[in-house]
Fold this sequence. Notes:
This protein is of the alpha/beta class.
Amino acid sequence: MKAPANIIFQNVQRPELRQWFAETLAAYPELHQRPIYLRKTAMRRSTMRAQPVLNLDFFRRHSRHYRVDFSDHLEVTEHVLVQELPKEVVIGWFAHELGHIVDYLNRPVLGMISFGLGYALWSRYMRKAERVADTIAVNHGFGAEVRATKQYLMEHATLPPHYKARLEKYYLSADELEGLILAWEADQKMPEVVDV
């Protein structure tokens, strides 16, 4: 599968990761006209993150560029290498990160700055942002994949306990996630109402 023109890969050698990212992005039509980078880079505190690119377009909401970074250079990835995860898990992770980008789309510059500060300084703000990203991913049809990602991370025996505690604190619980998935599936099955 050829990557859409709006994806820019940086240091991503694995063709599977490129393909899986392109497949996931295809389900987010609101992002198709935006430059979206997938970049492998060293990060200290996270395995994957989504951010706006800080360039001149950052100041123009409608032409802003976005980036999804992933790392294999931190404590957690001593236990979990993104390149070795099952496809469903990686797609769930990508879907979550693209959910963050959808959340950023309509934020003006000051809104993005206050979001970044809130996320960095207040755990309640961070919790809300992570739950919103999960919800957006489910609403784009990635409920099973987000569930698989969380299940894999929680059941992965060698992950440090503090990482699992962080997942439980900030992200949707299994029950909340299941409720969202069921609601989304029910909504997909509802017939369209036609006025007579």
